[in-house]
Amino acid sequence: MFKINSKFILDDTLVSVTYSSSCYSVFRDVKHGTECGYNNYQLQRLHKQGLLKPHFLFEIDEELARATYAFLDESQKRELNMKIALVNQFIAAPVKAGKEANQLIRETLKLIGEDCCVRESTVRGWVTKYRKSQGNVFSLLDGRRKKPNFAS
Length: 152
Known about the structure:
Helix content is 40%, strand content 17%. The chain has helices at residues 40-48, 62-68, 74-92, 99-111, 120-132, and strands at residues 7-10, 13-20, 24-29, 35-39, 52-54. The longest helix has 19 residues, at 74-92.
């Protein structure tokens, strides 16, 4: 099942979920408004072929970033953006464990230009922390720093 209004790239087309049950989902082409339904077997096959991918924004609205992230230094902003991208990937798509999850992590990090290595268990921990905070992206900041350092 997918969350209603979740966005995906389906065969190079931006689509939005309009209906989803345990065995069937309907996607609407955002540009043209046409709808098409798929059963879980079809969706799984499309996903394995690389034709169904979650869509998320890599770029943050500059004005919003200045207002929201103003107290963060550049390294914290970069870390937070990386964590948001990975958490979005794990939330947006039904991610399996093991090789598939590790491949998704590597592809996401490559897309956003990060050259670090993150373990699957770490990303799953971030997802849990993000969900427990009810979507507060600042919950993903490193917990060892309790408050921002305004002195620098």
